[in-house]
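Reply to dn_fold:

You asked what the input looked like. This is it:
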Amino acid sequence: MEQELKVMVADQSHEKYIDTILTTIEEAAKVRGTGIAKRSPEYVATKMREAKAVIALEGDRFAGFSYIETWGNKHYVTTSGLIVHPDFRGRGLAKRIKDLTFTLARTRWPHAKIFSLTSGAAVMKMNTSLGYKPVTFADLTDDESFWRGCEGCINVDVLKRTGRKYCICTAMLFDPEEHLPVKLPEDVLERIAKLDGKNM
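and this is what came back:
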């Protein structure tokens, strides 16, 4: 019997999936022939502990993942690293993960602009349906630590050659001032409140 495919905000209990997540991301990048910023196991673990990641599971099987990063003193947010394991593609899972990651970002940082750099048509379509608009790279954060994340991408030479004005990716931006607020389930809000209390 097929188990329910669940999409949830990740926590410490999901750290056992980190190697699978990183392998799945790496293999997808090879298949697509596109660049992707490499992340360490410690980086992903921190995202899980800080309620800045979303994971999809079918029973104990890893199905998909995405995480959130804040930039420019939390004025900008990205939802990144969206991946669906090949066994679970074609089931609308990417959209479910993207929707929850997006809601999580909007709930935690309601005034931050959310942006996306992507070369994938499916992600562009999802972004558009959520209210993102195509923008120039100049409209994105000038936070140097964000741009350093592009160093692991095979197309970084294009970015450097153009003085960070263009690359293979399309830049997309969601401005919260143009949209109604959103809210997460109460149990997730309680967990975030505890985390934010510790990090003050």
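The mean pLDDT is 89.
Hope that clears it up.
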